[in-house]
Amino acid sequence: MAGTRKRIEALIDKLEKHGARVAGVELGDPMEASLPDLIAELGGVQPPPPLLDLYREIDGAALMWNLEHEGQALAGGFNLQEIRVAMLRNGAEADSEPLEGILWTGDEEPDRVELLRKMVIFDSVPGRNDFLTFLIDDPAQLYLIADGEPAKLHSSLDETLDVLIEHGGADSLRVHLTHTDWRGRVAADPELEAIRKL
Questions:
Q1: Nearest CA among 101, 146, 99, 105 for reference residue 119
Q2: What's the whole-model pTM score?
Q3: pLDDT > 70: what percent of the chain?
Q4: Model confidence over 46-99: pLDDT tens digits?
Q5: pLDDT beyond 80 at 1
Q6: How far is CA 72 from the centre of its chain?
Q7: HSE of 40, CA atoms in CB hemisphere, 13 A
Q8: 55: closest CA among 24, 89, 86, 78?
Q9: Where are the alpha helices (DSSP H) in 89-130?
Q10: DSSP string, 132-164
Q11: Is 66 helix (H, G, I), strand (E, B) or coil?
Q12: How crowded is residue 6: how many other Cβ atoms within 10 Å of its Cβ?
């Protein structure tokens, strides 16, 4: 994901020039080259190549924003997890299982808990209980977890990261990626079109 930092910085500049309230901006430094090996030693998950490329340039990025533009309310954000946070998959408590209390509680249907336990969070939605994830045993399979409900994404990891950054993690974006015709939905969404035209 070469140029990610510059793309996010340009996005922030564009939003601020149009009067957006921008908060929670965090742009990490490039990850240390030894981190993937250390994470493996600690029993963590190795990131798939698109995320590894991202981490080599920027280890974590967060942004929240909202804007009133030409009578239209626009808002969004993303929290691309740091490699340590994402790949070590800690639970909500010190004695929790991986991602327990974050993605699952144990009160869900057994099949759903089994699926959620296999996931790695790479993006969380600011202000909501929504996450973008991939499967440990199938990193090409991405999911949107919205209020505990998993839905498969039809975009690749590269495509997902690209549209997420292009649209500043707009509120309406992620659900479009769960449809086979996601490209058309993204192109036709008035909120996303307004963001592209800023």
A1: 99
A2: 0.93
A3: 99
A4: 999 999 999 999 999 999 999 999 999 999 999 999 999 999 998 778 888 889
A5: no
A6: 24
A7: 7
A8: 86
A9: 110-117
A10: EEEETTEEEEEEEEETTEEEE--S-HHHHHHHH
A11: strand
A12: 11
